[in-house]
């Protein structure tokens, strides 16, 4: 069937033809893109007059965690407060209302990262609220956790338990080496099977088509037609995605990443990537990416920074910690290049960013002799603090940058100031200089829990990045006029945001030959908006809703 959409303002993301008013679709692809006097609809089976509405290419969330969101729906949301006693009272009352027979393991989210600015949470404090079962509280950065004594006991964690990655993935300890109950990164994840075996219970954490659809359909209704799952937690994830695809119920392109931690486990991770892609890969489903967490977070104080951190709880020698140095990372990149597997790297500190650039530069120089050519794509995710001297390097090295747009305002508050100081805090989340130098940016939501799924709406992310104001977590207006997060000139234009949400994301997922723009021959993925993005008040961009979302020529959400 041949379908024509006409009388529209169609933003193509194609620099050779930025705006048109008519497209013709057949066989799931665009067969004509242009203006109505040139493109005639006479021989189309269906013609839709869009009444001047704005049409965008299908949007891409290029760093998100559908599995984690799907598996978090049993977690318990804490009240948002900086009063420790209020949190303890809530947990105490919740435990009283839900005995261990009903809820054997209590998982609470979130407490503010700066809640314990004058110290650190302890197991004894949490024991005072709940001691009859394991309890975990996740901090707002999602990179630190607070557990009670029972959980440490069931995990088998004692003073003699080594830290998997000292300074980064580790247990806080007292003077005698005993774990205090404060955990960094997801160190507990290494011990959860031990705990579940000891309990004779485990949560139902296998992903199903229903649980995956819950997340992917939310994204789809908001205009997302391609996703990158930053960490595939379990094989059931790709099984579910492949099952949706086989049933005709997958309405997006899906790319997944497999985590590795060191050069030692890298070969196994590559083998897993290859196996998943061989078993479950299709035109819509691909698994061809490795994921590495290079450093921690600025809010917790374990980001890798060039100048020492200012807080007493900073890690290492005050410059944070990294999973590996530039030399080991170089070798990992060469190994990935030999296997033709892309690499996606979490980094937030300026020292981690520089080490990442140095490693890519070294690996590219060695690749010709090592394997004949440099073939892989490397993406740096987050890049919250970048030294001005390094802003030009992504463009020179061909590194893609992935930024989580809804973090651009006050989502994480001022927690990082304690560790970085005001001067560095004011330089965070700045990407215009990179774009000016020629770098490709892709944008994402990085949501990991059902608690924040609403923020995965791309138009919410666009609003925050375009205004530097978070409507849900505004900064103190008395200190920051208008609640605008410094620096005000780091706002991203709508044009730059659309570029990253379309072609930037398509390049990261390596689907730019068939998606990311409205061009002849590409998949007919598009979004018809109920409000013109360019005419909407900046503070109401998040209110925009797609009237229709089309994937490969079929309307999958809404209607024309």
Describe the protein.
The chain has two domains: 75-199, Diaminopimelate Epimerase, Chain A, domain 1, CATH 3.10.310.70; 209-548, Alpha-Beta Barrel (TIM Barrel). With 560 residues, the protein is α/β, with parallel strands linked by helices. Strand 16 (253-259), helix 8 (266-280) and strand 17 form a beta-alpha-beta unit. It has helices at 66-71, 84-97, 123-127, 149-155, 192-199, 209-221, 235-246, 266-280, 326-339, 350-371, 393-397, 417-420, 422-425, 432-436, 458-467, 494-508; strands at residues 2-6, 9-11, 19-20, 22-26, 29-34, 46-49, 54-57, 59-64, 76-77, 106-111, 135-139, 144-147, 171-173, 179-184, 224-229, 253-259, 285-293, 342-347, 378-382, 400-404, 441-444, 526-529, 546-551, 554-558. The chain starts with a strand and ends with a strand. The longest helix has 22 residues, at 350-371. 51% of the residues are buried. The mean pLDDT is 95.
């Amino acid at each position: 069937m041949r379908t024509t959409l006409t009388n529209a303002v169609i933003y193509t993301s194609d620099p050779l033809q930025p705006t048109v008013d008519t497209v013709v679709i057949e066989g799931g692809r665009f067969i004509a893109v242009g203006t109505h006097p040139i493109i005639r609809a006479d021989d189309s089976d269906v013609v839709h007059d869009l009444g001047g509405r704005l049409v965008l290419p299908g949007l891409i969330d290029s760093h998100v965690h559908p599995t984690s969101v799907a598996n978090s729906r049993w977690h318990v949301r804490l009240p948002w407060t900086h009063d420790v006693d209020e949190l303890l009272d809530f947990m105490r009352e919740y435990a009283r209302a839900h005995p261990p027979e009903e809820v054997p393991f209590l998982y609470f989210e979130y407490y503010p990262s700066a809640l314990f600015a004058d110290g650190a949470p302890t197991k004894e404090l949490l024991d005072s609220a709940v001691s009859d079962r394991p309890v975990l509280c996740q901090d707002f950065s999602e990179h630190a956790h607070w557990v009670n004594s029972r959980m440490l006991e069931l995990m088998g964690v004692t003073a003699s338990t080594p830290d998997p990655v000292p300074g980064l993935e580790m247990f806080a300890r007292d003077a005698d080496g005993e774990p205090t109950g404060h955990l960094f990164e997801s160190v507990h994840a290494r011990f959860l099977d031990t705990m579940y075996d000891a309990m004779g219970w485990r949560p139902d954490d296998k992903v199903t088509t229903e649980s995956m659809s819950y997340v992917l359909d939310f994204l789809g209704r908001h205009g997302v037609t391609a996703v990158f799952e930053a960490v595939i937690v379990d094989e059931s994830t790709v099984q579910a995605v492949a099952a949706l695809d086989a049933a005709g119920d997958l309405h997006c392109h899906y790319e997944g990443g497999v985590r590795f931690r060191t050069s030692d486990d890298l070969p196994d991770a590559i083998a897993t990537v290859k196996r998943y892609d061989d078993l479950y890969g299709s035109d819509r489903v691909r698994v061809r990416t490795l994921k590495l967490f290079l450093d921690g977070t600025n809010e917790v104080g374990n980001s890798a920074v060039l100048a020492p951190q200012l807080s007493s709880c900073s890690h290492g020698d005050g410059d944070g910690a990294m999973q590996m140095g530039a030399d080991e990372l170089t070798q990992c990149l060469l190994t990935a290049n030999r296997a033709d597997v892309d690499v996606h790297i979490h980094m937030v500190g300026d020292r981690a960013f520089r080490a990442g650039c140095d490693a890519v530069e070294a690996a590219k120089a060695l690749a010709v002799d090592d394997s004949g050519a440099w073939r892989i794509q490397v993406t740096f995710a987050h890049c919250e603090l970048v030294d001005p001297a390094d802003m030009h390097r992504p463009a020179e090295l061909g590194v893609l940058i992935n930024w989580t747009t809804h973090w651009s305002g006050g989502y994480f508050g001022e927690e990082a100031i304690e560790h970085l100081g005001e001067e560095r805090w004011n330089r965070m989340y700045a990407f215009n200089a990179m774009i000016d130098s020629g770098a490709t940016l892709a944008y994402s939501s990085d949501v990991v829990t059902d608690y924040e799924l609403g923020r995965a709406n791309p138009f919410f992310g666009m609003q925050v990045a375009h205004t530097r104001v978070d409507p849900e977590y505004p900064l103190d207006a008395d200190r920051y006029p208008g609640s605008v997060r410094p620096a005000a000139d780091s706002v991203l234009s709508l044009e730059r945001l659309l570029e990253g949400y379309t072609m930037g994301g398509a390049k990261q997922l390596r689907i730019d030959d068939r998606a990311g723009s409205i061009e002849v021959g590409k998949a007919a993925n598009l979004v018809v908006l109920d409000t013109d993005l360019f005419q909407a008040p900046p503070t109401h961009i998040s209110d925009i809703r797609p009237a229709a979302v089309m994937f490969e020529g079929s309307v999958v959400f809404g209607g024309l």
